[in-house]
Structures are given as C-alpha cells and as structure tokens.
C-alpha cells in the first residue's frame, strides 16, 4: 500500500471525525506540502506527533498529490472508520 494512503488510513482510525474535518479544512487552504507546518495545530494537542510527522514525510514523497487530494482522502478514511465502527456495534 502506498505510504501516504496508509498514514491517512491510520489517521482516519485514530482521530475523531470532527478533528479530521478540521484538519482537512486547513489542508485545503494550503498551496503545497511545503506549508504543512501551518496545519500542525489543527491536529490537536493529543494527536500522535509521530503519525502527523509520517503524514508530512509521506506527502513530501508523493509530490504530485495536491492539498485537496490529501484533504479528501482524510475525509474518506474518517467516513470509512465510522462505517466500520457502526457495523461492528451490537
């Protein structure tokens, strides 16, 4: 699996959907991955800093991926995590 997609999937599982929405909205405002530092605070104080760092690194290695692509992928990962959680509920 592509590293960027793997990290995005992990974030979808780890972060609350509202937090993902905040992060995705912030990422959409970026011009490129070089501005990633502007999004760090939107992940919240309890976010796994290593995981956030992995997102940045993976995105830097996937230069053709736009901020909009990353934001959409995060939202999709979050929606998938919610659906999976709801299907597992008894």
**Assembly state:** single chain
Number of helices: 4
Mean pLDDT: 93
Low-confidence stretches: none
> Over the alpha carbons, how many angstroms does the gyration radius reach?
13 Å
The total beta strand count reads 0
Mass-distribution shape: globular
Please give the domain count.
1
Helix content: 55-70%
Report the major sheet. Answer: none
Tell me the structural class. mainly alpha
SSE series: HHHH
Q: What is the distance, rounded to the nearest whole angstrom, between the alpha carbons of the first and last residues?
A: 31 Å
Strand content: under 5%
Task: Provide structural commentary.
- The protein is mainly alpha-helical.
- The protein has one domain.
- The protein is 64% helix and 0% strand.
- The protein is built from four helices and no strands.
- The protein has helices at 3-14, 17-28, 49-60, 67-88.
- The longest helix has 22 residues, at 67-88.
- The protein is globular.
- It starts with a helix and ends with a helix.
- The mean pLDDT is 93.
């Amino acid at each position: 699996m592509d590293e960027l997609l793997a990290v995005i999937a992990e974030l979808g599982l780890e972060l609350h959907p509202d937090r993902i929405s905040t992060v995705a909205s912030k990422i959409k405002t970026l011009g490129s991955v070089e501005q990633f530092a502007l999004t760090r605070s939107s992940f919240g104080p309890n976010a796994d800093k290593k995981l956030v760092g992995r997102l940045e690194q993976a995105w830097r290695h996937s230069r053709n991926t736009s901020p909009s692509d990353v934001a959409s992928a995060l939202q999709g990962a979050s929606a998938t995590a919610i659906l999976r959680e709801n299907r597992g509920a008894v």
